[in-house]
Amino acid sequence: LLLGCELTATTKSYTFQVDEEDDSDHILALSVVCLTDGAKDECNVVEVVGRNHENQEIAVPVANLKLSCQPLLSLDNFKLQPPVTFRLAAGSGPVHLAGWHRIMHREDASFEEDDDLSEEDEEELPPIMPAKK
């Protein structure tokens, strides 16, 4: 399923959520964030707002667009798990977000076939170290 929304000075946020009773797995992938017709030459900052493992709200900027130098940003299908809110933290837009929504039913056999790597083949990633102050 395709997803699209527009953030403006009057509509500063858009929340994508799924029915809590739905037992399917949902993935939202953000592909492109771009300024659209009528945008001013100002910084437009788009944030993704979600919840961390302690259920605290966190906001992460994913795009800083300006008409004269960077009107479009490809996010290469940046994957998110709903519910998620997109917020125009700075600027007046309009900013268009485009991506796709994938629904994987748990009883669907193709869900398990997507993982082609065995545990032995998976690359082990180093732990994330805290930033130095």
From TrEMBL:
<dbReference type="GO" id="GO:0005730">
    <property type="term" value="C:nucleolus"/>
</dbReference>
<dbReference type="GO" id="GO:0005654">
    <property type="term" value="C:nucleoplasm"/>
</dbReference>
<dbReference type="InterPro" id="IPR004301">
    <property type="entry name" value="Nucleoplasmin"/>
</dbReference>
<keyword id="KW-0539">Nucleus</keyword>
<dbReference type="InterPro" id="IPR036824">
    <property type="entry name" value="Nucleoplasmin_core_dom_sf"/>
</dbReference>
<keyword id="KW-0143">Chaperone</keyword>
<feature type="region of interest" description="Disordered">
    <location>
        <begin position="109"/>
        <end position="133"/>
    </location>
</feature>
<dbReference type="GO" id="GO:0003723">
    <property type="term" value="F:RNA binding"/>
</dbReference>
<comment type="function">
    <text>Plays a role in the regulation of diverse cellular processes such as ribosome biogenesis, chromatin remodeling or protein chaperoning. Modulates the histone chaperone function and the RNA-binding activity of nucleolar phosphoprotein B23/NPM. Efficiently mediates chromatin remodeling when included in a pentamer containing NPM3 and NPM.</text>
</comment>
<dbReference type="GO" id="GO:0003682">
    <property type="term" value="F:chromatin binding"/>
</dbReference>
<dbReference type="Pfam" id="PF03066">
    <property type="entry name" value="Nucleoplasmin"/>
</dbReference>
<protein>
    <recommendedName>
        <fullName>Nucleoplasmin-3</fullName>
    </recommendedName>
</protein>
<keyword id="KW-0597">Phosphoprotein</keyword>
<dbReference type="InterPro" id="IPR024057">
    <property type="entry name" value="Nucleoplasmin_core_dom"/>
</dbReference>
<comment type="subunit">
    <text>Interacts with NPM (via N-terminus). Forms a pentamer with NPM at a ratio 4:1 (NPM3/NPM). Two pentamers form a decamer.</text>
</comment>
<comment type="similarity">
    <text>Belongs to the nucleoplasmin family.</text>
</comment>
<dbReference type="GO" id="GO:0006338">
    <property type="term" value="P:chromatin remodeling"/>
</dbReference>
<feature type="domain" description="Nucleoplasmin core">
    <location>
        <begin position="3"/>
        <end position="102"/>
    </location>
</feature>
<feature type="compositionally biased region" description="Acidic residues">
    <location>
        <begin position="110"/>
        <end position="125"/>
    </location>
</feature>
<keyword id="KW-0007">Acetylation</keyword>
<keyword id="KW-0488">Methylation</keyword>
<dbReference type="GO" id="GO:0042393">
    <property type="term" value="F:histone binding"/>
</dbReference>
<dbReference type="GO" id="GO:0005737">
    <property type="term" value="C:cytoplasm"/>
</dbReference>
